[in-house]
Amino acid sequence: MVEIDFTFTINDSNDNQFDAELYLESENLMKKRVIISIVMAMTIFCGVIFFLEHKNTYDTEKDAQNSMDDEVVLASSSEGYNSVVVYQLHNALIVSAESEAAFFDGVRYEVETQGNVDSSDIDIVWTNIGGGTEKTEDNDLIIAEIKISENGKLISDTKINFAKKAFDALEDVLKSNKR
Q: What are the backbone angles phi and psi of residue 44, rounded to the nearest 5°?
């Protein structure tokens, strides 16, 4: 095997001469430095993102814990797959309605109060579609009426229909079949 040693010079635009091997070595060294710099920058960036995300998660958990400490459940009621919870948070009552049914997205609203409201001031009444309060084999209790009083005065009277979205979908199907 024969080895051939190439040495040549490179002239730049100012007629400066460079040794080709030295030039290639410095170019490779420069590429390595750029790659190392990029890797270090990405590592620092990922570290900062991880730190901020961890800090945000910690703050959210801390806020949720503080919020839970301030909440006082005043009333709760459930019927079948549906439930209503009323709790006090500072000078407001939060009414939260949830269901395990796929056609109910949940409802949450706030009622402002002047002071504290007792659990005796909250009444949750379940009714069926016909307005009856008795659950029968053919009629589930799917409407919750939440009445909230303060100092003997009614400040909120809201009905939540847990099946409204299902009825709307059924109505749409009937309309489309009618055409």
A: -65, -45
